[in-house]
Structure prediction request, 277 residues.
Amino acid sequence: MTVYKALTIAGSDSSGGAGIQADLKTFAAHGVYGMSVITALTAQNTQGVRAIQDATPDMVGAQLDAVFEDIVPDAVKIGMVSKAETIEVIADRLAQYGAKNVVLDPVMVSTSGSTLLDPMAVRVLATRLIPLARVITPNIPEAQVLANQAIAGKRDMVSAAQEIMRRFSYEGAVLVKGGHLAGCVDDLLYMAGEYVWLSAPRVDTCNTHGTGCTLSSAIAAGLAQGGELLESVQKAKDYVTACLQAGLDLGKGSGPMDHGAVSRPGEAPSQTQVRRG
Prediction:
């Protein structure tokens, strides 16, 4: 039996809804063996983050060596990395080991719109990690930072994706998530000079903690199993929708999704519609 493996490089969420915990739950739900490199410890719950302690760059590098020298992943998801020095270490190791199917979720801007990375870290992430990625998955605020332009509608999402490709001489794919735009239910996947829109039902819930982490790790799981990129993105969106529709209600704030709501992701009829641009 073939065992597919995926690695998540991200921060730990003590409440279990996002970060490393969400990624590993997502890998397991897809039948993929999950491994982790922890970049930071956080003390948080559904009401917010109380404290963050970054792992040292040396410790991150040691974790990466331990994984790649033994159980080589079929895909890699990168989430929260806050220090430029750590980003450099990750980029060096991924290049050294020839990591494949890298999914980069550029966690740069908080839900409130605050910048989480200093300019140097953003610059290193853009110039060192983006070229290694098969796909990057920015939300609207993050795409605005990477493209250095405002995004007010769907036309702007297309031009932002094009600008990201141009600015960083990037040859992979960009998935711009449209959820931050009022009334938008579409994500844009831009690749090879073409783009498609992916639409899924909007779920009326405030329990959306970890949706970005979950989407990117579900894409990585699909790629690890040999799926094509568009297929992997579509199935990942289906998975997130189903996890939200399960109606898990935990905590006093923005709660987590039910990552175990789907026994075999990808077997149910797709809820995500694909339209060519």
Observations:
- The mean pLDDT is 91.
- The CA atoms of residues 109 and 267 lie 34 Å apart.
